[in-house]
Structure formats: C-alpha cells, structure tokens
Amino acid sequence: MQSRRSKSITGKRKQVGNSVARVIKPQKTRKIIRRFHHLINKRESICQFLCLTEGLDEANEKKNDTIILASTKGNANLSKYYEDGKSQAFNEVMEAQLLKLHSLVNNETNSKEACDLATMYTLLGYIMNQIDALGGLETYQIASQNGQLKGRGGDTSKLLEKWTRPLLGNRSGAIALEIGSLSSENRISQCGLFREVVRIDLQNHEGVAKQDFMERPLPESENDRFDLISCSLVLNFVKNHKDRGAMCHRMIEFLKPQGYIFIVLPQACVAHSRYCNESLLQKLFASIGLILLNSHQSDKLYYCLYQLQKAPSQLKGFSKRVKINDGPGLNNFGITL
Ligand SMILES: C[S@@+](CC[C@H](N)C(=O)[O-])C[C@H]1O[C@@H](n2cnc3c(N)ncnc32)[C@H](O)[C@@H]1O
C-alpha cells in the first residue's frame, strides 16, 4: 500500500494524496494558485537569466533540485548560496527581492558576476523551499480542483458547452481531448455533446489518464484525431514561451479538419503581459491556421474558441518574443512559434 506521507525535497515529511485536499479550505485556493504562479514565474525568470531553462519540470521538484545543483558545476560557493536560500523560511527581505527581480534580470549592465549569481542562487533556493512548503504541484492541482467545484462557478467548460452546442449539436460521434483534466465531472464530460472525452493530465486523478500531452503518440489516422481539444489553464502552466508554442503546434496535429480548440488563460496573460495581448494571440494562432470564433474576458480568466482552417504556408514573425507593453507589475507570459 502506498504511504500517505512522503519526504519533500528538503527532507521534511509532508502529506500527500487526498489528505491534502482535506486541508485546503476553499477560500484559500485562489491564494495558493496565485502564490504557485508567482513562484513558478520568478523561478522561470531566474532560470532564463542563468540560461538554465532546459529540463525543469513542474511535475518533478526533486528532479529540478538535482538540475539546479548540477548547474552549480561543483562551485561550492554557488551550491552554498542555493542551500542557504533553501534553509530560509518565508521572509520579507526575500519576498522584496523577488518583487524587484525584473529589474535585476533585465539590467543590461548586469553581467553574470559573482554577486548576481549569489543573489540568483539564493533566491532559487528560497523559491524551491517555498514551492516545497506549499506542497508543490500536487497542492496546486488540488487547489485548482477545489476551484472547479460545482457551485463555485469554477468549471471553465461550462462556456465551452455554451459555445460549441450550436456548432456540434447535430454531429453525432464527436470526440474530445481534454488536456490538463482534473475531473470527469466537468461539463465537457457531462454535457452529452461528445461520444467520448479523452481526459489526460500530468498527474493521476480518478477517471483521468496520466499522460504528458507532449509525449502522446502522434495520430496515425483520422481516428486518432479530435473534433475538439480543450486546453483550459494549461498553456500558462507550461514553463516557457517556446514550449507553449510547441504545445500549440502539437494541438493542431491532433485536430480533425475544421476541429475546435478551446483555450482558457488567466486574464493577466492577455491583459497584463509584456509579450502578449488578445490581438497578438489572435494573429499568432492565425499563423498556424486557427481562426477565432469566440472570446470572453471575465475578471480573472480569458476564454477563447478557435477553429482550424487551412494553415498559411509560411510561419511569419512569431519566433521571438516582442515586447508590446512595458511598465511595472507586468508579467512575462508569451508564446512563440
Ligand atoms: C491549473 S490546472 C488546470 C485544470 C483545469 N483544466 C482547469 O481548467 O481548471 C493545469 C493542469 O495542466 C496540466 N498539464 C500541464 N502540462 C501538461 C501536459 N503537457 N500534458 C498534460 N497535462 C498537462 C497540469 O498537470 C495541471 O493539472
């Protein structure tokens, strides 16, 4: 029988599995999700600064720890700074440093000198410990799941049903793929529009297959393709702009001609990003053959429905992130193709 307690990367014992779900109060879920995103984004910025983006994996913090340690390349000082950061509990000094990280990593005169590296590795250690203290990806997913509970208005596929019923209502036998699925109880699975909904996620959940979409074998025939792909709050979860682009390309491979993609992002990804807004997103998707049918922005989320048309023969202008907004308080969300 699997133990309900496991060791964290810092060696502390922590609870895993359903026991965590019991201790996350609904009013805390948003806070947890925001904190998780904050930490992951800051870690991404530091890793980019250190040219260390390769291989970090939100689903495996132990592996991340090993990768970061390996990047110190036996430099005892750097690994000491990293361990030093890990040993620090939540504190205002480190939080303030995280908040001004943007100016540190974007300072043109900042060469990767010893003092920068010391700060960065200490912050990395601190972030790792904070993610660990939060319970890592598992707690985040449980918080997201709680956020979806019926009656709390959290199931984004309610809008998917509303938008696609007029399009798919008469089509019998439609099949859907839900990437990042946390439950078989969501509207996408219950609305009756689909003969089958294939649900996948990086982690195990009841009624959901554990699979990394990026490793799902490519379709060999039309039967392996989908009428609709749902990608709700997943792209923002993917660690960098290139990998998000790769996921978008891959979704196209899995769509039937004229198939639909339903995408949900935190509203901040289109409203408060240096590298993304709704119009850029629309152009970027158009370059891979996706035409916008519907969109909606709530206080917290941005929803959109695209349909696959014929892709233009050449991909143009989306291989690099271009700054379209500037100012304090913006995030670095972006997608490149
Ligand atoms: C915030 S949850 C979103 C849950 C749900 N779809 C929703 O709308 O609330 C993001 C989920 O995306 C999943 N995810 C991220 N990358 C993935 C990938 N490559 N393949 C499968 N699932 C992935 C994560 O495991 C995580 O559970």
UniProtKB/TrEMBL annotation:
<dbReference type="InterPro" id="IPR029063">
    <property type="entry name" value="SAM-dependent_MTases_sf"/>
</dbReference>
<feature type="binding site">
    <location>
        <position position="180"/>
    </location>
    <ligand>
        <name>S-adenosyl-L-methionine</name>
    </ligand>
</feature>
<dbReference type="InterPro" id="IPR021867">
    <property type="entry name" value="Bmt2/SAMTOR"/>
</dbReference>
<keyword id="KW-0808">Transferase</keyword>
<protein>
    <recommendedName>
        <fullName>25S rRNA (adenine(2142)-N(1))-methyltransferase</fullName>
        <ecNumber>2.1.1.286</ecNumber>
    </recommendedName>
</protein>
<keyword id="KW-0949">S-adenosyl-L-methionine</keyword>
<dbReference type="Pfam" id="PF11968">
    <property type="entry name" value="Bmt2"/>
</dbReference>
<comment type="function">
    <text>S-adenosyl-L-methionine-dependent methyltransferase that specifically methylates the N(1) position of adenine 2142 in 25S rRNA. N(1)-methyladenine(2142) in 25S rRNA is present in helix 65, a region that accounts for most of the intersubunit surface of the large subunit.</text>
</comment>
<keyword id="KW-0489">Methyltransferase</keyword>
<dbReference type="GO" id="GO:0016433">
    <property type="term" value="F:rRNA (adenine) methyltransferase activity"/>
</dbReference>
<dbReference type="GO" id="GO:0005730">
    <property type="term" value="C:nucleolus"/>
</dbReference>
<feature type="binding site">
    <location>
        <position position="201"/>
    </location>
    <ligand>
        <name>S-adenosyl-L-methionine</name>
    </ligand>
</feature>
<comment type="similarity">
    <text>Belongs to the BMT2 family.</text>
</comment>
<keyword id="KW-0539">Nucleus</keyword>
